[in-house]
């Protein structure tokens, strides 16, 4: 026996782990969900018989915390039964196993960092399913089963492939080549150029219009939202500017982007979340919707919401890694105000927001919304 077997190898963690093993010239086999369904005990046994690893690292998991609340049985099959199948196969094959778990197995009320032997008391379906997986692994492999709990995962492979190089605009007729940047020439009016700390730059309204003229319809709205959030120009400024630019390439698409822009949006990912909902055929959500209790007391703002149907979603970026307990308490208050509310992450974005649009669509229908008849 030799080498490593990594399950869930096509996910964010699995891809980074296999890259690390490859860099260290380790012998390994990576199996994605399409290669191995860990909920199938026969398939798991066959995989270990074929590859005969010394160590199995289980990176396969149901990772949507909020989705697990509505589908706990399905989440348990992946997070509980799957590790149990792997551990049983490892026990028969004499392989060690590393099970990735989470701090959600605790209740979040500690005033100090948790120790490994602190009692588990999960408050969520996700935490309960992950705890079931932990216990299955340690029961089957008391000497060679290891549980690694982490509070947050991040990695390069969750990022999309947008071109993040800065764009440099020069007056039409000039030529510029600059390594590490995208350069283009454009017609610039006299008032299109301002000076910022001694550097020539396009004015806020020209920058807003240029961002809204991007060929990607979603990123055009992302750019427009970002500029509007700076409060250096307004939608009316941009609309008036477009009137001067009739006949320019991208003006029509820019007008569409401006019609979808929302100055109150607080991050690019919130814009992408909002656009995903609309592109799925759902109603246009309102950014930063106030949630109030029965007495009118403000409880929270949700990133994108539907006040009429009391449905809301948040996007949790890296800043939420250290505030998960407060976020969970906040979500419970929103639920107590009789709102349907869930939080989504970069993993959902990387999956095309499919789970989110499905969940929100079902919640809206349950609240009384009906799609327009065709």
Q: Got a strand count?
A: 13
Q: What number is the mean pLDDT?
A: 87
Percentage of residues in strands: 15-25%
- Return the CATH class of the largest domain: Alpha Beta
Radius of gyration from the alpha-carbon trace, in angstroms: 25 Å
Give the % helix: 40-55%
Structural class: alpha/beta
- CATH overall fold name of the largest domain: Rossmann fold
CATH architecture annotation of the largest domain: 3-Layer(aba) Sandwich
Distance between the termini: 61 Å
Runs with pLDDT <50, length 5+?
A: none
**Total domain units:** 3
What order do the strands of the largest sheet run in, or round the barrel if closed? 2-1-3-4-5
What is the helix tally? 13
Q: Can you summarize this structure?
A:
With 374 residues, this protein is an alpha/beta fold. The protein is built from 13 helices and 13 strands.
Task: Write structural notes for this entry.
The structure is a single chain. The chain is α/β, with parallel strands linked by helices and 374 residues long. The protein folds into three domains: 4-156, Rossmann fold (3-Layer(aba) Sandwich), CATH 3.40.50; 167-260, no CATH class; 281-367, no CATH class. The protein has 13 helices and 13 strands. The chain has helices spanning 12-23, 41-51, 65-70, 72-93, 125-140, 204-212, 217-229, 235-244, 251-260, 268-279, 324-336, 346-350, 354-367, and strands at 4-7, 28-31, 55-58, 96-102, 145-150, 167-171, 182-186, 193-196, 199-202, 286-292, 298-306, 311-315, 340-344. The strands form four sheets. It has a five-stranded parallel β-sheet, with helices on both faces. The protein has a four-stranded mixed β-sheet with strand order 10-11-12-13, sandwiched between helices. It has a two-stranded parallel sheet with strand order 6-7. A hairpin with a 2-residue loop joins strand 8 and strand 9. Helix 6 packs antiparallel against helix 7 and helix 6 (204-212) packs across helix 8 (235-244).
